[in-house]
Amino acid sequence: MIRVALFSALSHTIFVVVGLLVYVLTTRIGHQRRPPSSAIGWVIGIVAFPYIAVPLFLVLGSRKFKRPERHLRSAIEPPPGGGPVWVTQLLASMELPGPAHNEMLVWHDDGPEALQRLLALVDGAQQRLDLSTFIFGNDEVGDAVVEALIRCTQRGVRVRLLIDAIGSVKTRAGTLRRLRAHGVRVRRFMPLLHNPRQGRLNLRNHRKVVVADGWHVWSGGRNLAVEYFCDRPDAPAWLDLTHEARGDLAVEAAAQFDLDWRTASGRRRGVSGPPPYTPVISEGPCAQWVASGPDHADDTVHALLLAAAYHAQQRILAVTPYFVPDDALLYAWCMASRRGVDVNVLVPARSNHLLADWARGRALRELCASGGKVWLLPQMAHAKAVVVDDDLALSGSLNLDGRSLFLNYEVMTAFYSTEQVQWLVGWFERQIATATPFNARQPGLLRDMGEGLVRSVGFQL
């Protein structure tokens, strides 16, 4: 009996050691850099629950498919009307396409208007239409988009629809069959059952992009479901933002969709960044396509937000449905606030995810303790946007939490033109006028422990 017990203890110890070795080798060999809190979470999980954590890590652990490739680049100047030099140089160092001018660049803060513009873009496509979304709803908005896509194919337009397999898991199979029957090419991104070598189940495509003819793009935070656009009898539409552009930004969006479409087919071999593109427009609103995710060696948006925190001189405005930043980003924003930068963060008083509301408490209190301001919006806010001083605005699909910053396929647009930045500043001012200040009082012991547990487990692994 003693020998059996000793053998069991030895086997358990060996399994734990092997599990830790697998973690270290996978992380180091694959250049899988992680936030310290995420790394600690995996190590504790492997030691405490090895028979659960090790298989879970093998299935979900990888977060990058592209290894760092550094190419020395000379300092570049942004085009006339472009953004700060430090922004364009930083993004160029991470192999991202440069800023470019556009014929048209407008915001949509009104849900019905955003839906009208989306349907008009689809109906105006002449040759090809590409649509990518995280959620494709079974409601009047989803139905309207389906009908518009079918009208496209009936005009002879080549239509491709890319939906995330987890985000759109509730999308009716009959809807997709109908689209395919009318000639729409449909792909699911990372379905539940797929070859793990083709991608990890934990890495979701959260990008929302519609591109018509490679020259007209609609993008932002809205999924294709009714709550993102229209009031319902029991609840108002969610507060959200999208934008629309004609010009070089759409060319970059079309190239990005092509890469995502190939990735969804399982053909990651040979998939790299968009080919170099020479802008053809020399004036007009200036913007830059900033993609982030497993297909980039760097955590591009996270790096940009960190750098922005230390370059900011006047203000940082941010809105997000889920505020669970990593320690580095939170510290950078706290330091910005302590040195006099006016830091304002807007979040919904109650979001659609209870765990997110629990996990955000510590970060909100730390920001307030450093002099930052946190505002609670009366309705569900799904918008994702950041303004830094008067010359940089970001908006798109990325939430300020660990999943969006380090795991998901995401995309943000960097706006550099004064008109677009000031429009977003005005939008923030209108939302703050309807919000209430966050009460930063310290929670009880059980609440504090619960927040820490949810933050460590739910938003780090």
Task: Describe, in plain words, how this protein is organized in 3D.
This protein has 461 residues and is α+β, with helices and mostly antiparallel strands. The protein contains 15 helices and 15 strands. It has 3 domains: 59 residues; 184 residues, Endonuclease Chain A (Endonuclease, Chain A), CATH 3.30.870.10; 159 residues, Endonuclease Chain A (Endonuclease, Chain A, 2-Layer Sandwich). It has a 15-stranded mixed beta sheet, with helices on both faces. Helix 1 packs antiparallel against helix 2, helix 2 packs across helix 3 and helix 5 runs parallel beside helix 6. About 1% of the residues have low confidence.
Describe, in short, the structure shown:
This protein has about 450 residues and is α+β, with helices and mostly antiparallel strands.
Topology of helices and strands:
Layout: H1 2-29, H2 36-48, H3 50-60, H4 85-93, E1 100-108, H5 111-124, E2 128-133, H6 140-154, E3 158-164, H7 173-181, E4 185-189, E5 209-212, E6 216-220, E7 242-247, H8 248-264, E8 286-292, H9 300-311, E9 315-319, H10 327-338, E10 342-348, H11 354-359, H12 361-369, E11 373-377, E12 385-388, E13 392-396, H13 402-406, E14 410-415, H14 418-434, E15 436-437, H15 445-458
Parallel strand pairs: 2-3, 3-4, 9-10, 10-11
Antiparallel strand pairs: 1-7, 1-8, 2-5, 5-6, 6-7, 8-14, 9-12, 11-15, 12-13, 13-14
Helix pairs in contact: 1-2, 1-3, 2-3, 5-6, 9-10, 10-12
